[in-house]
Amino acid sequence: MIPYTSFIMLCFNKSEMSCNAIRTLVESFENELIEKGLEIVVVDNGSSDETPESIPLLKRELMNENILIHYVRLNENIGYSVGVNIGLSHCRGKLVGIVNNDLLFPKGWINPILNIFMNDSNIGLCAPYLSNATGIQNVGVSFENYENMNLFAQEFMEKSRDQHHFVQRVIGACMIFRKEVLDLIGGNDFWYGLGNYDDDDLCLRTIIAGYKIMIVGGTFVHHIGHLSFNQVPGLIQACYWANTDKFKLKWKLSGEKDYYGNYVIPDSVLNRPYSRESDFFPVRLEDFESKSPVYEKKNNERYLLIADWSNHLSKWKAALMKASLNHQECEVWIPENYFDKYGFKSQMDHLVSIANQIGIGTRVSMNFDSVPPVQLLNFINNYKGVIRVQDDFVNQYIVYLAEGISLDII
């Protein structure tokens, strides 16, 4: 049976919270909708708590011929952006929801969204009002328990049923897409690593692909907010500042913001033609272009170093020096459509100079090319292997891809 609705939920520890989110999601659906098929893909991002035991138990508790719960266990935390992409690779529904595990769902919240999709084929992404969000989407309320939340939600949804808003951005906590939109634009941009601005980017690519985004009246979901990110002190701030610069550079933004603090997107970006080469991000290995005249496999002894260069928590400098100590030839890839080419060239020249002064004799080359996302696998396959970097979610994805095509990892 092909489900009508699919949901991806990423979790990292917080087992009880994840189970509550899944349980309330299922309970919020009317029987008629469940009979059409409900699929929930739970991606466990390397949890070290009871999550590996609790999700399969919950799956048995909620067992139903029309409810499919897939539990995807990852060995390590690969970050939000790529974790969602892995979830997307398992989805089959006509509508696909990306939802956080720090949500509680009131009864009937999704019905107005389904009606919008049914009545307007130009709308590609819908989102509910949230208790904790930004902009128009934010209701700004908190609750002592689920019962109080559900009572508020029913009243709010009744009062707001005509309050629809077309927007350029919604937050990534709860996003419902037409499957055809995701087939066109793919998943998250992996350069956002752990997260932050991945949702802005996904929304912008939805608009470029020719679809509208709506915050739907008559909807409400309770969002606690940032509990997974906050498990590592300082992580959310580091990702925010690193990804702010990437988002601005990628889309060539001036830095001007609107009333709600969102970057103003110029019409030249909003109205530009959709390009599969730059706007589609694969979620499966088979989604990558299989052949490329540019990145053909050669007799190459170089190792590739890719990192979240502007994130100060990344240990990329230590990885580069370690490779140098081992006399391994490596190429550093710093795509200029995400990073300041001249600033990083200066840093890299300085590091190579230090290595040479202490007699390491390193051989480091720099590559600032902007490689199309669909060609990423071919690009990586042009090297002997890739260099692993600690505390770097961009690098973890590159390692994940390299392992998928059996390259060396050092």
Report on the structure:
It is a single chain. The chain is an alpha/beta fold. It is built from 15 helices and 15 strands. The strands form 3 sheets. Strands 3-2-1-4-8-6-9-7 form an 8-stranded mixed beta sheet, sandwiched between helices. It has a 5-stranded parallel beta sheet with strand order 13-12-11-14-15, sandwiched between helices. Strands 5-10 form a two-stranded antiparallel sheet. Helix 12 (316-325) links the parallel strand 11 (303-305) and strand 12. Helix 1 runs parallel beside helix 3 (51-61). It is globular and about 70 Å long. It starts with a strand and ends with a strand. The model has no long low-confidence stretch (mean pLDDT 92).
Q: Strand tally, please?
A: 15
Order of helices and strands: EHHEHEHEEHEHEEHHEEHHHEHEHEHEHE
Helix content: 25-40%
Uncertain residue ranges: none
Mean pLDDT across all residues, rounded?
92
- Order of adjacent strands in the largest pleated sheet: 3-2-1-4-8-6-9-7
Question: Which secondary-structure class do the elements indicate?
Answer: alpha/beta
How does the major sheet shape up?
8 strands, mixed
Helix count? 15
Separation of the first and last Cα atoms: 43 Å
Overall 3D shape: globular
Calculate Rg over CA atoms: 22 Å
* Strand residue content: 15-25%
Describe the protein's topology.
Elements: E1 5-11, H1 15-27, H2 31-34, E2 38-45, H3 51-61, E3 67-74, H4 80-88, E4 95-99, E5 103-104, H5 111-119, E6 123-127, H6 146-159, E7 165-167, E8 174-178, H7 179-185, H8 198-208, E9 212-215, E10 222-223, H9 235-250, H10 267-270, H11 276-279, E11 303-305, H12 316-325, E12 330-333, H13 341-357, E13 364-367, H14 376-380, E14 385-386, H15 393-404, E15 408-409
Parallel strand pairs: 1-2, 1-4, 2-3, 6-9, 11-12, 11-14, 12-13, 14-15
Antiparallel strand pairs: 4-8, 5-10, 6-8, 7-9
